[in-house]
Amino acid sequence: MSQNHGDTIPLNASSAQSDMDEIESLIYAAPSATVLPARPTSPPRASIPVSTSPLPAPAKPPLPASSIPIFVPQAPPASSAAPPASVSVAIASDGFGSAPNTLTEPVWDTVKRDLARIVSNLKLVVFPNPNREDPGKALRDWDLWGPFFFIVFLGLTLSWSASVKKSEVFAVAFAVLAAGAIILTLNVLLLGGHIIFFQSLSLLGYCLFPLDVGALICMLKDSVILKIIVVTVTLAWSSWAAYPFMSAAVNPRRKALALYPVFLMYISVGFLIIAID
């Protein structure tokens, strides 16, 4: 069945416009649709400020305390108008320098240091000096190498002077001196003396130096009269050296009890020097 143009039914009955005009009118007449977002919007991000100024120079590491320079200004000379110069002096962190390490030092340095200490203590004990009035200052840096050397030297000298049984003479002399020093030290301590045990041994050993000299002279010159004179002088010298230290260590009322055994030991050593032929 055929239809002509006049048989076309419009979309809207109240309008006589064509289909195309009707569609256009519907498009323009419809309200704008709002498209909902699929997810909520994210909050705004904080902006990072970007500085256009150049980066600061890196800080220098602090200097170690041991190399901190001290600038000591020098006074300019009278005739010169130049600015004062500065002298850089490096000091240690503690102000006095690090303590010397004696474990890694050469053997010869150790020997020289010990010999210097022996000579210093010998001067303080045997020879006149101002520190003899203060025993604490006189033998503060005490040692046992010096006394050991003087005891061995005296024993060897007496054994060389003996014509027979040299080894027995050395053994007797060494035992008398070593045991005597220990007994005398214990005697001072039992009397209430204020002295260190090894310091007392060191003192009594250093006081043997005059008797060592006397034994050496008597070995070189075999004369009874000379021996008596030399032993008397050296015995008085040894007693004079030991007197201020031993007397200051005990109570004044017990001074004789502390000094008498010391003199007795030195007198016995003197008789050994005279008797050995």
TrEMBL record:
Domain (Yip1) spans 128-271
Q: Does the keyword Mitochondrion apply?
A: no
Some GO term, biological process aspect, for this entry: which one? endoplasmic reticulum to Golgi vesicle-mediated transport
InterPro entries referenced in this protein's UniProt entry, alphabetically:
Yip1/4-like (IPR045231), Yip1_dom (IPR006977)
One CC-aspect GO term: trans-Golgi network
Query: Residues annotated as region Disordered?
Result: 38-59
Q: What is this protein called?
A: Protein YIP
Q: Where are the transmembrane segments?
A: 144-162, 169-190, 196-217, 224-245, 257-276
Listed Pfam families:
Yip1 (PF04893)
- Report the subcellular localization: Golgi apparatus membrane; Membrane
**Predominant localisation class:** Golgi
Instruction: Give the membrane topology, semicolon-separated if more than one.
Output: Multi-pass membrane protein
Q: Would I find Signal among this entry's keywords?
A: no
Domain of life where this protein originates: Eukaryota
Family affiliation: Belongs to the YIP1 family.
Q: Which controlled-vocabulary keywords does the entry list?
A: Membrane, Transmembrane, Transmembrane helix
